[in-house]
Amino acid sequence: MELWYSLVDLLPFDWAQPGSMFFMKNALLAVLVISPLFGLLSTMVVHSRMSFFSDALGHSAFTGMAIGALCGLAEPVGAAVVFAVVIALLFTLIRQKTHMASDTAISVFSSAAVALGIFLSTLGGQSFTKFNNLLIGDILSVAPGEIGLLALILLGVVILWVTSFNPMMLSSVHQALADSRGIKVFWQETVFSMAIAVVVTVSMTWVGLLVINSLLVLPAAAARNLAKNSAAYHGFSVIISLVSGLSGLILSYYWGIATGGTIVLMAAVIFFGTFLFARLKRG
């Protein structure tokens, strides 16, 4: 981290002065790691029309946190990851093995997860307020070790994209065709769902449950307004995610507001800007 701090010291911001504001320097590095994660996953979430699925995973992650806290775990994030992965597996299994519509299955899992989370978090007259920080998030609290975990997750997602992007894309476009090509559609969807579950759960504490789903939709939605091919689509999504993350972090510091909400607001501004640009270009 010392090398990172020395590099940040060169930036022209008051919080970048040597020997101070380490929480901002940690948050800046976290944004640089977490933004490409959301940018990559966002493309497949939007392409596969799974935006509500990622929202349901956020709710299930909250329930996992409540289960971890109820079990007395010092760090309930592990329980949240396990619970979210289980929900992702069950959702994929039900969608593949039954004729239930995706939006119906997502609604069932989402509502059940929220209800169970509220039930467990208030069991025995407990106060729900201890989970309020999960709703808004606080990326300024991220620690160097947690950034390392995010970096490992980013590496895993990049490897997944390099090795399995084409099968995942074909599976999302036409399952029957993918089956005819020997692609295991169920396992492709399962791995992708698990990747979303892990990213959403681990990031929820810093981004906030109320806005985390937006970060899995807006970058790719804005990229669609600009891209002319698949490579540009992914590139624009990652760039938009990075720009909104960096600008949201810096503006939230100077304006004294929640970072997660500011990042999403910047992503929304970029989306509407690209939407107008695309409309004017076509018109």
Sequence stretches where pLDDT stays below 50 over 5 or more residues = none
What's the count of strands?
0
Rough outline: globular
**Measured on Cα atoms, how large is the radius of gyration?**
19 Å
Structural class determined from secondary elements: mainly alpha
Reported for the largest beta sheet, the result is: none
Along the chain, the helix and strand elements come as HHHHHHHHHHHHH
> Averaging pLDDT over every residue, what do you get?
82
- What helical percentage do the residues reach? over 70%
User: Number of helical segments?
Assistant: 13
What fraction strand?
under 5%
**Separation of termini?**
50 Å
Architecture overview:
With 283 residues, the protein is mostly helical. It contains 13 helices and no strands. The longest helix has 30 residues.
Describe the secondary-structure layout.
Blueprint: H1 2-8, H2 22-47, H3 51-70, H4 77-97, H5 102-121, H6 132-136, H7 144-173, H8 175-180, H9 185-207, H10 212-215, H11 218-224, H12 230-255, H13 259-282
Helix pairs in contact: 2-7, 2-9, 2-11, 2-12, 3-4, 3-5, 3-9, 4-5, 4-9, 7-9, 11-12, 11-13, 12-13
In a few lines, what is going on in this structure?
The protein is 77% helix and 0% strand. The protein is built from 13 helices and no strands.
Key descriptive features of the protein:
single chain; mainly alpha; 13 helices; 283 residues
